[in-house]
Structure formats: structure tokens, C-alpha cells
Amino acid sequence: MASFILIVLVGISFGVFLGYVIRSEIAKRRSQGAEAKAERILSEAKIKAQDFLIRTKEKGIQIIEEAKREESERRKSLMEHEHRLEKRESLFDQKLLEFQEKQQRLQDKLHEIEVIKQKINQIKDEALKELSRISGMSAAEAKEEILKRVEGDVKEEAVSRIRKLEAVGADEMENKAKELLSLVIQRVATSHAVEITTTAVDLPNDEMKGRIIGKEGRNIRTIEQLTGTELIIDETPNAITISSFSPIRRQIAKRALDKLIADGRIQPARIEEAVENAKKELSIEIKKAGEDTLYTLGLEIAGYEPKLVQILGRLRFRTSYGQNVLQHSLEVAYLAGLLASELGANVSLAKKGGLFHDIGKAVDQEVQGTHPEIGYNILKKFGLSEEIAYCALSHHEDKPTTLEAILVKTADAISGARPGARKETLEQYIHRLEDLEKIATSFSGIEKAYAIQAGREVRVFVKPQEIDDLTAFNLARDIAKQIESELRYPGEIKVTVIRETRVVEYAR
């Protein structure tokens, strides 16, 4: 047992020693491997550091070389720039010297010119003195004589050219215009009924006159006051006359009287009621007249303000020289449209301009201004285009600026100048003839003037020693312009200036 334990102890001790030896050997080997690895790593690090230093040196050398090259190029560029500046400076100095030389030469030439100019003026003065001495006239007299001769030659040449142009183009243009206007007039054939300023009302019997007059004339005074008209009750059987310059007032009075006569009860209260009903009926009729006119021309009623249509309808009860203005406007619209179609203008614009050209006459008795200006403002107020409004403004101007406005002006003249379209009283006719002759004789150099052909022509006889041929042309135009600006008349008036030279000699 003891030997066994001993053997076990010896075995354990040997095992421990053997384990220590083995472990020491292992540790030694591991230490040797770590040192070798460390040496290897250190060696590799030294090699890498050496390579890095080499590359860094090479990079630095390369950067230094590039810097030297760039510096060399910059120095070269600066030298070239400096060379160019020196060259430009030398050129500038050279140009400055040349400029100074030229300036000096110009000053010398100016001095020479001044000397020459003085010599020329001296020679001119001497020549003028010599001419004055030879001709016996001063310089001003000679100049005036030359200008007179030149003016006479120019006048003769101008008159000759004017006559030649008129002879060449007048016949042809007149024939073409007559052909075009005759064609258009034939295509618009309308009837004319000249209106007067009175309206007759039929009565069932003469007893009704007394009832209309009323007790102490109260009924007739009420009617005249409410309608703004004058009732003329004379010996005409079964009829009374309503007098007023306003067709609308006459219509209101006539309708009110018709209602009162039919009802039989005539008293102030019934008169007021009848007048109010007549006004309402007439307002409806006026609106319908405006709508019918638009429909007749093929214009859309919805495209116009109802108030403008109402104003257009008022023209049915407005006259100008006895001519119904609404019928006249409708005719002008037709004529302007046909003229536009013949000449290639805007037909729709010409029609509308012709229809509304006299729209200002519907309210010209209530609004200040001429009816072209009033019409222009009305059309602009209701949103119509400037072209249409201008037709209303310019139809009495000498030279409208648009083709459609010229056509409307032409159509207006055609409609007003048709036989029977308009009328004048005897007093107006005589007054117009006197005004024509008065305007013609207001110019200097006029011997006498006569208005002939019912005022359609004025013939002016001039003094030949004061008015020459060219001045006669200008005088005719001036007289025509003054007639247009001062007188109102239908159609056109022809101005004829007659210059006659008579030479009388006696044989004894």
C-alpha cells in the first residue's frame, strides 16, 4: 500500500515536471514566433516608409517643376502684354501728332476760306453797286422785280398743270362716280312723304269743339299744357288742328283727343288720364319702331341696349326739313351698305354707321351740342365701336378719315338730295339764298354774286385786275368751305367763280 502510494506520488511529480517542461517549450516557441513576426512587421514598415519618402520627394520635385514652368509662362505673358502696351503707346503718340497736324492744316484752310469769303463779299458788293448804277434800281427793288417775274411764271405753270389734271381726270372720275351712284340709287327705291308741323283731328260733329274748349277754356288749356302743343279751333267743319314742331307731342295730343272724343267725357281729370295712356302707348310704339328697323336691316336686336333701341325709335317722330329721320336713317344704311359692297369696304360697319349717323337728332332738343357730337357720345355710351361712332361724328365733316365714314356721308347726301325728300318754307328759302350771296361777297375782289338753281349753285363774278387765275381756284375753295361751316342745307351747293377780262377800244 505504501509502495503504491509512493509510486503514485512519483508519477504525479513526473507528470507535473513533464507538463512544466512541455509548457516552457511551448511558451519559448510562441515567444520566438512573436518576435519574428514583430521583426517582419517592422521591416515591412521601414520599407513602406522608405517608399513613401521617395514618392513624396518625387511629388515635391514635380510640383516645383510645374511652379517654375507656370512662373516662366506668366513672365512670358507679362512681357508680351508689356510689349503690346508699349506698341500701342507709340501708335497713340503717332496718331496724336497726326491729329495735331491735321488740326493745324484745317485752321490754316479756315483762315484761307475767311480771306476768300471776304474777297467774294467785296467783289459782290462792288458788283451790286455797279448793277445798281447801270440798272438804276436798288438791290431790294431788283430782288422784288425778280420775285414778281418768278411768281408770275410759277402761277402760270401751276394754273396750266391744274387745268391739265382736271381735264384728264375729271370726266373719267365723274362718269365712274355717276355710274356707281346711279346703280346704288336704283337698288334703293323708297317713297318720300314730306311731313308738316300740324296734325288734323277729325270730330264727329262741330258740337265737340265746344266740349274740347270747355268751360271758360279750361279743357283746351289743360290739353295744351299737358301735351306742349297748340290746338287751333277754327271754322273748318268737323276738324281741329294740333300745331307743334315736335311730332311726338303732336302724336300724344292726337291720341289723347281720339280717346277723349271716343269716350265723350272731356274734363281735366279725364284729360290727364288720356294723356298718360297716350304716352305709354307711344313709348311702346317707339320701341317697336326701333326693333322693326333693326330687323329690317338684318341686325340682331339682342346685340343692342334696349335704351339705345328706344332712342332709335324716337327718330320715327323726328323730322329734318320735313323728312322723317328714321326713314332717312334706314335709307342711308341701305345706300352705305350697297356702296360698301361695290367698293369692297366693310358692309356691316357701313350699314350700322348709316343707321345711327343721325341718332343725336332724337335728343338734340334736350341735350346741348350739335347732333353729330351728341350721337357720337350716345353710341360710345352704349358700347358701340369707335368706327361706328365716328360715322355719326364725321358725316358733316369735309374729309372723314375712314372709308366707311365717307360712304355714310355720301349716302346721307344722296338721301337728302332726292327730289321731294326735303322741303323748306319760303322764308327759309329766301334767307338761305341771301346767306349764300352774303358769304360769297364777303371776300375781297368780288364784283357780284348770284344764288341760282334754287340755291344749289352760287355764281361769283370777280374783278380780273385783282384776282388772277390761280387765286380764282383758291377763292372757289374758300367760299365752299365757308358755306359748309356756316350754313345748313340738304345735298350740295356748287360754287362757280367767273373771271372775265374785257378789252375795249374805240376807232375814231
Textual characterization of the structure:
- With 508 residues, the chain is mainly α.
- Among the domains are: 297-423, Hypothetical protein af1432, CATH 1.10.3210.10; 426-499, K homology (KH) domain (GMP Synthetase, Chain A, domain 3, 2-Layer Sandwich).
- The protein has 14 helices and eight strands.
- The chain has helices at 2-135, 139-187, 207-213, 218-227, 247-263, 268-296, 306-314, 325-343, 347-355, 371-381, 386-394, 403-417, 426-441, 469-486, and strands at 198-202, 230-232, 239-243, 319-320, 323-324, 446-452, 457-462, 494-499.
- The strands form three sheets. It has a three-stranded antiparallel sheet, covered by helices on one side. The protein has a three-stranded mixed sheet with strand order 6-7-8, covered by helices on one side.
- α4 runs parallel beside α6, α5 (247-263) crosses α6 and α6 crosses α7.
- The longest helix is centred in the first third of the chain and has 134 residues, at 2-135.
- The mean pLDDT is 81.
